Amino acid sequence: xxxxxxxxxxxxxxxxxxxxxxxxxxETPELGTGEKGFYALSMFPYPSGNLHMGHVRNYVITDxxxxxxxxxxxxxxxxxxWDAFGLPAENAAIERGVDPAVWTDxxxxxxxxxxxxxxxSIDWKREVTTCHSDYYRWTQWLFLEFLEAGLAYxxxxxxxxxxxxxxxxxxxQVDGDGRSWRSGALVEKRKLRQWFLKITxxxxxxxxxxxxxxxxxxxxxxxxxxxxxxxxxxxxxFPVVDAAGELTGEQIRVFTTRxxxxxxxxxxxxxxxxxxxxxxxxxxxxxxxxxxxxLVARQSEQERTAEDRPKRGHHLGAWARNPxxxxxxxxxxxxxxxxDYGTGAVMxxxxxxxxxxxxxxxxxxPVRRVIIPEGSDDHAFEGAAWTGSGVLINSGRFDGLxxxxxxxxxxxxxxxxxxxxxxxxxxxxxxxISRQRYWGCPIPVIHCEHCxxxxxxxxxxxxxxxxxxDLSGKGVSPLAQIxxxxxxxxxxxxxxxxxxxxxxxxxxCSSWYYLRYSDPANDTLPFSRENANAWLPVDQYVGGIExxxxxxxxxxxxxxxLRDRNLLSFSEPFQRLxxxxxxxxxxYRNASSGRYIAPTEVVDPADPKDxxxxxxxxxxxEKMSKSKHNGVDPAAVIDRYGADTARMFILFKAPPExxxxxxxxxVEGQFRFLQRIWRLVNAAQERGLSLQTVMVIDSxxxxxxxxxxLRRAVHxxxxxxxxxxxxxxxxxxxxxxxxxxxxxxxxxLEASRPALACxxxxxxxxxxxxxxxxxxxxxxxxxxxxTDQDELTxxxxxxxxxxxxxxxxxxxxxxxxxxxxxGKMRGNLEVPAGADNATIEELALTSAIADKWLQxxxxxxxxxxxxxxxxxxx
RNA sequence: GGGGGCAUGGCGGAAUCGGUAGACGCAGCGGACUUAAAAUCCGCAGACGGCAACGUUGUGGGGGUUCAAGUCCCCCUGCCCCCACCA
Length: 874
Fold this sequence. Notes:
Elements: H1 9-23, E1 38-42, H2 53-71, E2 76-77, E3 81-82, H3 87-96, H4 100-116, E4 128-129, H5 133-148, E5 152-162, E6 167-169, E7 188-197, H6 203-208, H7 218-228, E8 231-241, E9 247-256, E10 267-270, H8 277-280, H9 286-298, H10 301-305, E11 313-321, E12 328-334, E13 345-348, H11 354-363, E14 371-372, E15 391-392, H12 403-417, E16 420-425, E17 431-432, E18 434-435, E19 445-448, E20 452-455, H13 483-486, E21 487-489, E22 496-499, E23 503-504, H14 506-509, H15 513-516, H16 529-535, E24 540-544, H17 550-564, E25 577-580, E26 583-589, E27 596-597, E28 618-623, H18 634-641, H19 643-653, E29 660-661, H20 664-686, H21 705-724, H22 731-748, H23 754-768, H24 773-782, H25 792-795, E30 814-821, E31 824-832, H26 837-845, H27 848-854, E32 861-865, E33 869-873
Parallel strand pairs: 1-2, 1-24, 3-4, 10-12, 24-25, 26-29, 30-33
Antiparallel strand pairs: 5-6, 5-7, 7-17, 8-9, 8-11, 8-16, 10-13, 11-12, 14-15, 18-23, 19-20, 19-22, 21-22, 26-27, 26-28, 30-31, 32-33
This protein binds one RNA strand of 87 nucleotides through helix 7, strand 9, strand 13, helix 11 and strand 29.
């Protein structure tokens, strides 16, 4: 051969990417009235500057889903955008003086270019960018909806305060030791007045509606349920008494999930920062208590909540009366009680709660057993808290009731007698959305001395960020330092007022972006009801498990609120969710020093040594990250093998929800596979085969053995791949079916007549299209699936409909039946395809297998599974 | 501590409703082509025994149900993830 002809993805891919874009192949089609389109959505990225393999995996999965749906006749929305506000841009500004807007736009441009190299069927005309005012205008508009609905409010909340830089820090800017990431100073807690969204008002619906999401992974639903953390119990009221036992008129409210243990209460405990602490502390205890509270306040969250640390507390010098039995009990404070869960106060029942037990033992508080296991009559305390179920003792009129009965009866008594009520409690807290940062969506309210909090009128939105800020990284809110921006006239009274200087948590921006894609150019509303209802809920959402709780919960919350505001008519945004596993890279570590070594520094991968010390390195797979030097750059892979190989590898190597180990040898293997297909099609073309010629398979004509094998392989592949792409997505087995088909074609194609060869070639290329779109398109043209003159928008391989299985091609004359003797496989038997059970039994009994293993004995039992096996039991 | 998940060859992973365990691929081995190598093509391949036919054994460990168990039930071990002094 005079010229080297081989598969060269680089030229193929750029050519087709341009052709598709010019033809507008991936633009979202119009929907008919009342028609629901198919919405395939990837979690949009933060524009950090470069694409990593996790992104690639995410978007390739969604892309295959979108492409298969199109080929199945659906009208598909497959958009992309940018979650573009956030800390890294602001840090770049502080450290290098780059304008966050410029930095972000530059990153978006380079990431968009990288994404386009992957050949994703994205409609770029619908791109949204959360930091552009034509988007965040509507984030502000939606905030005002929450405000109007009474779901946004202000309250004091503590922030991380860096005393050196005099600034507020995000949690991720505080390291494990409670020090600032930049100044290294010990971070303090400071109270600021901040904005919250009342997500707790939706706690029940967010929890209960999880049942309506069968298309979500069980584990994500469980994580959300645990996060919401609804528990059933009671709020009990303990009157405060003085030293003489007289009521003072005050009371302490506690929350408990075990009202049945109320007769076992031997003390009460308040959180150190509980509002009643000051009032309850006796003068003699004042100093010690205050010292104790300060000590606890200085501890970090982590220190305080470590379960294994000893519990510490102090008696306040106050007393309360147990409303159930009238006993006088001491009131304590302790570090193990949290102010912001329940009522911030608990009743101590050492006999039936492990924490209370440890606390009581340490401070020698009395322990009284009030529940014994069913059937036991041992009333003595056994030396450990009994938290199981049982029967009440020492509980007056409730003695003898079991746990559940007792809970109901005691709550009922408390309600009638006025010392408590049944209540539900949630772990979920309201969502703090204030951020003391510049690079975020401004909260559109104005503070006026006369009118109070005044929303910015809708026609004055957006409240735009001041351009070219001078960010120092110091001070409370960066926006507060820009006088010209802060000082405005009150929209209500016209007198001088001040803008809110906090910006919103970026999760606000990402809680509704999926709605904007349905109507991205709307300049009168964030989205129209009609467009949102036509495309949403999202049919398939794909993204990382790291968003299992926050993002997905907030998005669900938004959808429910917007539905209640009558802006939508559905209440769950994402019908089906796929959480893809992470991409891991080969990691080298020096076990003694803990140092990570870059693969490029390792001389012999078979026997990896530390290039500096010569020590043996340990190798393993771990999530790709800069600090571990185990990342693989998508651009380099595309450069070398092309996007189609990268796509195929990622889809084939592991099921989508499992972690994927990046392996260069396997990438090479995928490339070889695509090359094999390329050669197969080219050889066929040289043989003169063309899809332009109409080929009819004459059903009268008998097929040769090769031809029948070929047809069976084609239709087996169609059936198997179709099934793999239905329901659970099994891209890995779908691709293995493509490999089987190509193997069979290598064997039978040449020996088959053109009509049959063409059917096989056409099927192979069409089935390949969602996975390796560029190669498929190129081979489609080469095979004459279309001509250069045809419009791409109708004749592209991606516009072909999904192949249909011809079940007659799968029929065989004979089938192989397994012969078992007492459940053990001993051989197999060719029987006519239509043979009934009696025939199969007869054939098995007279077979050589039966002779050998039964030696003339008659089986006592014969089990025939039609078409599968026959089991002879002696 | 609570909740969820996983465990299959040298490796990644297949296996419908309980019905031939190891599809497909990677790495490996053998052969063809080549002066040679690469590439390509063909073949072998769980482990143990055997020249072979074949046999035994085998899905983290133990028990059970069944004609038949990777799959269902019980117990145990190991690993991963989430939440965690939540009253």
